[in-house]
Design brief:
Elements lengths: L5 H9 L5 H12 L4 H8 L3 H22 L1 H28 L4 H18 L2
């Protein structure tokens, strides 16, 4: 069974919406990299039962993302924050080339700091 590593990301966002058993099986498969046989032994179900549970959970996680789009929005916000930081650095360099207004430099530094802090959340 080929792994879709994007499922691991979706599990971070929507894992609590799965049943406890589904969440456990998917975490073991994607995050702990256990085989279907190892998960079956750990969970006390058949290998086919593990596979079916993973497939159902994957479908649910993808449906949650399709409806709610939290992972997509999170990625877009991260990209936007990186762009803000890049533009602040460019504006700071331009400010220094044009005489270095200290108030502008202070504001650009603060913008970069805020964007970095938000990116770390």
């Amino acid at each position: 069974m080929a792994k879709d590593l994007g499922i691991s990301v979706l599990l971070d966002f929507y894992g609590d919406m799965l049943t406890e058993k589904q969440k456990d099986v998917v975490e073991l498969y994607y995050n702990e990299d256990l085989s279907l046989a190892e998960i079956a032994e750990h969970s006390g179900i058949t290998r086919q039962g593990v596979r079916d549970s993973i497939k159902r959970a994957e479908a649910q996680l993808k449906e949650y993302e399709e409806r709610l789009g939290l992972a997509k929005r999170f990625n877009a916000m991260g990209e936007g924050l990186e762009e803000i930081q890049r533009l602040a650095r460019e504006a700071s360099a331009a400010n220094r080339r044009r005489g270095n207004d200290h108030e502008i430099e202070r504001n650009l530094t603060e913008i970069g700091t805020i964007a970095a802090r938000l990116g770390d959340l």
